[in-house]
Amino acid sequence: MPRLAFRSSPPCLAAPLLALLLTGLPAAALADECPAPGQWQHHGQAADAAALLADLAERRVVLLGEQHERLAHHRWQLHTLAGLHAHEPRMAIGLEMLPREAQPVLDAWVAGELDEAGFLAESDWLGSWGYDPDAYLPILHFARMQRIPLLALNVTPALRQRIAEEGWEAIPPEERHAITPPTSASEGYREALAEVYANHPSAEDPEAGLERFVAAQLVWDRAMAQGLADASADTPLVVGLMGRGHVTYGHGVPHQLADLGIEQTATLLPWTAEESCTPPEGIADALFILGDETPFEPAEPQRLGVLIGTAEGGVRVMSVMEESLAESLGLRRDDLITEAAGRPLRRPGELTDLVRRQTPGTVLPLTVSRDGEREELLARFPLRNGTP
Questions:
Q1: 50 compared with 277, residue with greater pLDDT
Q2: What integer pLDDT is reported at residue 201 of this predicted model?
Q3: Is 200 within 8 Å of 217 (Cβ atoms)?
Q4: Which residues, 6+ apart, have CB-to-CB distance to 39 below 8 Å?
Q5: Would you call 386 helix, strand, or coil by DSSP?
Q6: What residues does 364 pair with on adjacent strands?
Q7: Residue 224 in contact with residue 96, Cβ under 8 Å?
Q8: Which domains does the chain have, with CATH numbers?
Q9: Span between the terminal Cα atoms of the chain, in Å
């Protein structure tokens, strides 16, 4: 069976751009015919799945990008993991979803020592990640069933926020988790990050704020890349699961892996005709074409419309989106949300989970501290048809 050629280290292409926190991708011109669902695409051509997966299983690191709230993306990840495992059972799975402090909990889960409730509680899944664990549990059960090591790749949200606010050099070396300084961002990545940052206005000097934002993103990428690189020293194949913005165009984690000397890598993404019949050139090494999974996706989650960060005594409002529910409530930058539905808040993910689980037309009580004054707000989530 012929081998499929991969780049040893994907180049960092400057255009088109992908904003990490946006849900869509820039549309390319539509072709007369779209690739068929269930098909793998490699360099714009249909690829034999068996030959492709066999070649991928010989990479040192394979990255599977996702949109966190898309169930179809997690199903694709599970199927791809199973295919890779059939070719190389001596594999490990790295997770963006949990910080390194959660590694003992992941080890206990794989060893069968925790049930689901115990795992979610001890890993602080909602506090650290906040996205629906039900989307990830099939993958976690697959790893447990096959006794595949799971790796916590991330740093804590609190450390990422400190880096964004204070800069990498302000973090004491003993608090850096032995993460080496990241290599600088490519021009294309800086442009993509600048576009993201522009959607979250800051009260500080825009140029200084952007530099800190880029620095925090690079440390995030570096932490995951270093975790993957370290694991690949002892494991033939390491597969990383992370947001697609960390892997597209060779930016982010692939760029940091190359700097760490990990050359045998591959980036994979799911793709639908909704995005484009002709995917942008260089966006990933291979794409899997999904059909219309809309009927099987959950309803769009509720959103408050704030960017939030960790803070003592609650979660801090970092910015408020225009024309959002948060703006209509009068929330402002630097407000401290201390409680939601009568529950004290410790992590941003806890508020994210509560908001996401609200049904249309319901009300979520919020307790907000502003300039030392306590205020009670009622966030009323609109009906799906927009009726208040």
A1: 50
A2: 57
A3: no
A4: 46, 47, 288, 289
A5: coil
A6: 379
A7: yes
A8: 40-296 (3.40.50.11550), 306-380 (2.30.42.10)
A9: 60
